[in-house]
Amino acid sequence: MSEAGYRISENVSLAGRNTFRVDAKAEMLADVHDPFALPALMSEPWLQFAPLLVLGEGSNVLLAGDVPGLTLSLTRARIAIIEDAADSALVAADAGVNWNDFVHWTLGHGLCGLENLALIPGTVGASPIQNIGAYGTEVGEFIDSVQAFDRETLRLREFEREDCRFAYRDSVFKRAPEQNVITEVRFRLPKARAVQTGYAGVAEELAAMGIDGAPTHRQLAEAISRLRSRKLPNPAVLGNAGSFFKNPIVDAAVADALKAKHSALPVFPGDSPATRKLSAGWLIDAAGWKGFRDGDAGVAPQHALVLVNHGHATGADLLRLAGRIAGSVQARFGVALEPEPRILGGRFQPIAPDQALA
Ligand code: FAD
Ligand code: EPU
User: Fold this and answer.
1) What's the CATH number where 140 sits?
2) Domain C-terminal end among 46, 74, 102
3) Is residue 339 a contact partner of residue 314, using CB atoms and an 8 Å limit?
4) What predicted TM-score, i.e. pTM, was given to this entire model?
5) pLDDT digits (tens, 9 = 90+) for 115-133
6) Using CA positions, which residue lies closest to atom 16 of ligand 2?
7) For the chain, how far is it from start to end, CA to CA, in angstroms?
8) Is ligand 2 within 6 A of the CB of residue 19?
């Protein structure tokens, strides 16, 4: 540990720090173990206008080139109950805490709410960025506040939940990626809550575990973890960043017209009564991409929404494949796909099928 509260290295490979396992380099990397060192570090003159990437476990980034400026990683990982009420607790977790460890810590302390989010890769610090969600739960529902270092004012500030503007795979932080360094997240977690088992496959997984009737929150977390392990490739074995595209939100009339032509297309409620969410996985699958491989860049055989690195794909290879997929879905269904991970060092662009061979 350095006395300054951080350690800086130059020209460092990030291959082990992103789950696509793409070999890109950080110009400067700072591992920060004391968040109170941020004001001193970030007011260094060379850093004031340099590009900034705050990197957690790299499970939602695509490094399409080397990363200029500063890559910053927060390593402190403390968890504490800061208020214990009769029916809930307020828990503070450092940005560097592993998300799945945190879920299990809360369940082990008799707190619930996060069980449907078990086994999502990444850190607590990244959880508010895209308002992580799975199996019918979004984390924003349980976030009380977010502590962040504001790069403009060089001060720590607090965002109440309403300030975070959480929506499907979106937040105020996602929209201004170089502005805030999240140092701590506070969660308001209930001590009792009805289990949410309505998402497709969950009840079946519980039944397969021999659990009839009401599962405990821990059993539900276990069922979700098993389901996820079967449905998604493990990044430790096959590089990936989970869903590569968001499920597109379209006008209800567009969804109705598509559903009339393609009755199997899954359609879910959108973010308002006038919109619907479509399944990007279904659209990509129906366009024939599942299991596709071009060199080492490919699409997972078990889930069409997941791009994979079979070994030595570059970020640019994966970005090009993403463009081809989006171009083909646009041509076939008239639906625009938007990437979910943050793309660095390249620009996402749909590639029309007739341009794909050029
Ligand atoms: P990174 O990938 O390191 O960073 C992601 C973004 O957050 C970047 O823009 C980064 O700059 C920013 N960021 C990270 N930490 C901070 C911080 N402390 N302060 C400010 N900005 C920060 N996501 C879901 O929502 N639901 C899922 O079900 C899901 N399943 C997945 C399954 C797999 C197999 C994989 C590989 C990914 C999955 N994801 C899922 C995506 C990913 O797990 C989440 O987005 C996660 O929150 C990313 O955490 P991370 O620490 O790896 O963030
Ligand atoms: N489908 C296909 N073919 C496929 C994959 C899916 O037709 O190859 C169809 C099926 O009809 C399936 C439906 O798509 O029932 C939905 O699939 P799934 O339950 O796997 O959910 P998803 O919409 O593809 C979303 C999230 C996941 C999250 C799961 C579970 C997005 C972009 N993705 O996936 O999050 O884990 O729901 O809640 O919203 C991530 O963000 O990285 C991620 C993995």
Assistant:
1) 3.30.465.10
2) 74
3) no
4) 0.98
5) 999 999 999 999 999 999 9
6) 279
7) 51
8) no
